[in-house]
């Protein structure tokens, strides 16, 4: 799987 | 939010605070690369532009604001307030050799060809190499103050913990971000040599000095 970035990470 | 992610964030915060306190308490930024700190300020600025476009959580927003504010405060202390103590003669890494290729790469390899996304990608790539001026400075002078090594240790630990966080998220959430992972691996590898010296010297009470 190649998902988009985790928006919640810093 | 898993434990590795949280301790990673706290380790990052610890690094930033240690550096600020070191400069503030000693009234000196000797041995600190202003160039690395400028790059980190640029990293936070370009990455957290999403503060204006999306809200994730109170934790997320406050940490971003703290990181940005602290990085600007650090740059201010180095280049303005305690400028006289800044060791510019030893801070000679050519940052354009980092910023230009990283800028080019973020245009070529990103998740989405939009301004915010390219700037986010730029910040991820730049963060992975932003410590190089600091490591270069230490290799030039051949030594680092112990408090500076604590700063570097927590800064390196933060990305290492994020790597474990990404493995965790891959298995339990099916999340995988190739850009962040590759940059995070590069970033962590850059600290390996330093980690070795930290464990073998600093933790045994010796000062970090490199053989001439």
From TrEMBL, chain B:
Keywords: Cytoplasmic vesicle, Endoplasmic reticulum, ER-Golgi transport, Membrane, Protein transport, Receptor, Transmembrane, Transmembrane helix, Transport. It comes from the Eukaryota. Coiled coil: none annotated. GO terms for biological process: protein retention in ER lumen; protein transport; vesicle-mediated transport. GO terms for cellular component: COPI-coated vesicle membrane; endoplasmic reticulum membrane; Golgi membrane. It is a multi-pass membrane protein. It is found in: Cytoplasmic vesicle, COPI-coated vesicle membrane; Endoplasmic reticulum membrane; Golgi apparatus membrane. One of its GO terms (molecular function) is ER retention sequence binding. The chain crosses the membrane at residues 65-82, 119-139, 151-172, 178-199. Belongs to the ERD2 family. This is ER lumen protein-retaining receptor.
